[in-house]
Amino acid sequence: MWKSSVKPVAAAEVREFDHEADVVVVGYGCAGAAAALDAQASGADVVLLERLSAGGGSAALSGGEIYLGGGTPVQQACGFDDSADDMEQFLLAALGPDADAEKVAAYSRGSREHFDWLVGHGVPFKESLWDSPTWVPPTDDGLMWMGEAAHPFAAAAAPAPRGHRVTSDGFGGKVLMQVLGEAVAKAGIPVHTDTGAQRLVTDVDGRVVGLVARREGRDVTYRARRGIVLTTGGFADNAAMVATHAPVLAGLPVNSDGGDDGRGIAMAQAAGAAVRNMAAGQVGITLVPGMAVRGMVVDERGQRFINEDVYPGLIGQAALFKHGLRVWVVLDEQAYEEVPEVERWGVRPHHVAETVAELEAEIGMPDGALQTSVAEYNRHAERGADPYFHKAERWLRPLRAPFAAIDVRRGMSAPEYGDTGGGAEVFTLGGLRTTTDGAVLDHDGVAIPGLYAAGRATSSMHARGYISGTSLGDGTYFGRRAGVAAAGLR
Ligand SMILES: Cc1cc2nc3c(=O)[nH]c(=O)nc-3n(C[C@H](O)[C@H](O)[C@H](O)COP(=O)(O)OP(=O)(O)OC[C@H]3O[C@@H](n4cnc5c(N)ncnc54)[C@H](O)[C@@H]3O)c2cc1C
């Protein structure tokens, strides 16, 4: 995607630096804002660079869901007990296998304090629960389930809803970034916009001491007396990097602000940084969770492959990785009608039939395939059971004529985001290998002096799994830790 070199420049080649600060934070999304705020609060003088003409990043477009727990005031007000241990066990199960256990533990233990930090900066959360699977609640409710009560997670940890949604009349990311932006401005942190970092500057010992950026067609140099924090987002918009590292995501629409070009990751790799879990991705499958949970999600052989009450991104991962997104939501008229219009995101059935036999023929499934699945599903649903996938009894009911099917590849119209087609929108979860304090590690597992990172530029807590809220959550939480460490306080 980029043409210019990402190789580090030797400090000796930089005659004079144009700018100097203790900590240089690169990328003004949620991780960058948090890193800058806590680096400055630690006594460092900070400059925040942003390639575009304003901050926000993908964070400003996001749903504003932040995964928090351990007994936050919002959880308590909604009547839920929670503990850091249960949060940790859930995240290990949902983000794994091979989730970063140290980061998951730190994040879960730090979650209550992180909630206070967010609220302290003015991030609003309403003390009310949205109690049905969804991507983003159509109300301004502040708490939502992320599949914690679903099989197999309910057995791993006592369930509690931990999706904390920034109060908004739609997607809450814009509110989050507006509030963090006000905090950055109030703290007097200089923001250099239209300034895209291109290459790191390293000294003879391999320490990262600065960077070269491009502004208005010119090279601009920055010296970082204590450290650089890379918070440049992921690489989902870089087709070449995706093809190399995460080919299963290649060609799919991307869920980002369009700027996830991976440059920050590549700059650090060129300076010796290691990466982790580069093949992992969030798969925002284009189905309406409220419809899926009331019906069945089936593959092209008419077979279910997951319990439909898990976090819908996990349905997306299973659908993409195992079934190439050739999946359908099968439901009946009652199930469709039960989902309020505002939650349907423009989705209407693509096939309608009086019998399951007609429906499977219309879709092009093998004769009898879907009929067998629906008969089995109904037989057990009759007594509130799902012995195949263990969907919660609350969502089980025999499906009755007339039947309908939705082809997820036909997409939907997400509010504030427009039409989404192709079956899923994805972003990458892999990135730089870092410590819990954001130090970027080399291939020997040794911290590269002077270099820190957070947010989607890192692999952070995730392995193959994903739960909504862990991006804004880990970006801000580990961004803060990286900022403090870069300031020299850890
Ligand atoms: C529609 C949508 C909904 C989402 N909903 C949620 C949700 O509800 N909860 C959740 O947790 N996650 C959600 N996400 C994902 C989440 O928004 C991102 O994963 C998160 O914003 C990543 O944070 P970040 O700070 O690492 O990167 P970003 O927020 O993308 O910020 C990176 C910034 O770095 C800048 N930058 C990049 N390269 C350079 C460079 N070389 N020099 C200078 N600046 C640079 C970019 O311009 C950008 O401003 C959603 C994403 C989308 C698109």
Automatic annotation (TrEMBL):
What InterPro entries does this protein map onto?
FAD-dep_OxRdtase_2_FAD-bd (IPR003953), FAD-oxidoreductase_2 (IPR050315), FAD/NAD-bd_sf (IPR036188), Succ_DH/fumarate_Rdtase_cat_sf (IPR027477)
What are the BP-aspect GO terms?
Answer: steroid metabolic process
**Superkingdom field:** Bacteria
Entry GO MF terms: steroid dehydrogenase activity, acting on the CH-CH group of donors
Which cofactor(s) are needed, names only? FAD
Gene3D superfamilies the UniProt entry points to: FAD/NAD(P)-binding domain, Succinate dehydrogenase/fumarate reductase flavoprotein, catalytic domain
Q: Which Pfam families match?
A: FAD_binding_2
**UniProt KW keywords:** FAD, Flavoprotein, Oxidoreductase
Indicate the segments forming the FAD-dependent oxidoreductase 2 FAD-binding domain, all copies. Answer: 22-471
For this entry, the protein name equals: Fumarate reductase/succinate dehydrogenase flavoprotein, N-terminal:FAD dependent oxidoreductase
